[in-house]
Amino acid sequence: MARALHLALLAAIFILTTSAYDLDPRVTKTDTSDSSDCSDTLHSLLSCLPAVEGDDPEAPTKECCTAVVHVNADCLCSALGEGDTAGFPGMNIGAALLLPRKCGRVVPKGFKCAGHLVPSP
C-alpha cells in the first residue's frame, strides 16, 4: 500500500514538473523521449518525496531538483487529481505545486495543473 502511495506521489510530482514546459517557451525541454517512458522518470523522482509530504516538508535536495530538471516534458498533467481528492494521504499539494519553482524551473503565471493553480513567485 505504501508503495502505491509513493508511486501516486511520484506521478503527481512528475506531472507538476512537466506540464508547464509545454506552455512556456522560456522553459527548456531536457528530455523529449516518448511519453511511454514516464515510469522511468517517476522512479527518478523518489528523492523528492520528503519535499512534498506532511505539514512541514523538507526543502528539495539537489538530487530531487536534478530529477525535476530532467523530467520528460511530453507526459501529461492528469494524475494529480482535482480538489480534495488530489494526490494521496500525506501529500502536501501546496508543496508539490511549488516544487518546480523551488528547483529553478520557470512556471508561467496563472498556470493550472489538473485544476490546481500553481502559485506565482
- In CATH, the topology is named Hydrophobic Seed Protein
CATH top level is Mainly Alpha
The largest sheet, given as strand count, sense and whether it forms a barrel, is: 2 strands, antiparallel
Q: What is the terminal separation in angstroms?
A: 35 Å
CATH level 4 superfamily: Plant lipid-transfer and hydrophobic proteins
Family: Belongs to the plant LTP family.
Pfam family, one: Tryp_alpha_amyl
InterPro entries: Bifun_inhib/LTP/seed_sf, Bifunc_inhib/LTP/seed_store, LTSS
Organism: Marchantia polymorpha (Common liverwort)
Account of the protein in words:
This protein has 121 residues and is mostly helical. The chain has a single domain (2-107), classed as Hydrophobic Seed Protein (Orthogonal Bundle). The chain has helices spanning 2-19, 38-44, 62-69, 93-102; strands at residues 112-113, 116-117. A two-stranded antiparallel ribbon has the order 1-2. A hairpin with a 2-residue loop joins strand 1 and strand 2 (116-117). Helix 1 packs across helix 2 and helix 1 packs across helix 4. The model is unreliable at 20-35 (pLDDT under 50).
